[in-house]
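1st attempt posting a full record on here, be nice pls
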Amino acid sequence: MAKRRRPMTAEAKRRLVVLGPICILFIISFFVSLISYTANLHQLRKEKEQLDAQYTSLQEEAEQLRIEISKLQDPEELAKFARENYLYSKDGELIIKINENQEEIEVKQEKLEFNQNIIYMCGTVIILVFIYICLRGTRKKKSNE
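the predicted structure (as tokens):
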């Protein structure tokens, strides 16, 4: 035998009208905070990975510097380092240093990239013009037939 549902009383309807939206707001706020927490956690993991990579590179750099310091304890290595970096010379030695500025190298690279871009654009225009001419020629042939 099926149970009959009792009709909802006015008091139950009032409770449903008042407590229903409150429950819905709590549920929505829970999901919003859950989503923001998850996004924040993802961002922190990315930042941790970046910092770990940076830490590793700094450790490698520190190791290279330790090796360089140990090499510079040798007087011959120290003299070689001074000659290469600070233009010191031995008696009777003539120093000619040829070194382009980093800025000049960057300007040359920018000019090269600009020229390459112009070449690519001109090539694209030439190809498009060629395709247009070919298509135009085939249309005229079809209309003449």
